[in-house]
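Deliverable D2.4 — example input (structure tokens):
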């Protein structure tokens, strides 16, 4: 049985897919992090976000995060899904779902996964505004 699911896709991310993957009768807790595209940043109105990735390396790094979370925390399963391409306000660029027997491990692993993903995975975000665009982190 596989305990991890990592995905990078240009298709719409589905919270239910991640939830269904981690759900298990032995688990009393499921923690979900769902990142959404917000309409403003730093007092500027955002029109859309554009995510790019070096996918082979990004998938390897996401798998490392999932594997490390399994060994570091007492969790049962973890799903890490990330979208690429143009996303509109309200769209979902990232979902992390974690299941465990008890809630604390699920919460801690979920926080660890999103924080580590933002630090180590080669996925880049470009914010678009009415008057231009800017890479939020180092561009590809």
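Example output (designed residues):
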């Amino acid at each position: 049985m596989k305990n991890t699911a990592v995905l990078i896709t240009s298709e719409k991310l589905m919270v239910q897919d991640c939830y269904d993957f981690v759900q298990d009768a032995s688990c009393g807790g499921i923690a979900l992090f769902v990142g959404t595209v917000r309409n403003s940043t730093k007092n500027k109105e955002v029109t859309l976000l554009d995510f790019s990735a070096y996918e082979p390396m990004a998938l390897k790094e996401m798998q490392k995060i999932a594997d490390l979370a399994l060994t570091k925390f007492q969790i049962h399963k973890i799903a890490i899904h990330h979208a690429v391409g143009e996303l509109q306000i309200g769209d979902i660029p990232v979902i992390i779902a974690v299941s465990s027997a008890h809630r604390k491990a699920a919460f801690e692993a979920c926080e660890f996964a999103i924080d580590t993903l933002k630090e180590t995975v080669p996925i880049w975000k470009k914010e678009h505004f009415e008057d231009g665009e800017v890479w939020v982190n180092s561009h590809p």
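Strands lie at 4-9, 29-35, 40-41, 44-53, 77-83, 85-87, 94-100, 123-129, 132-135.
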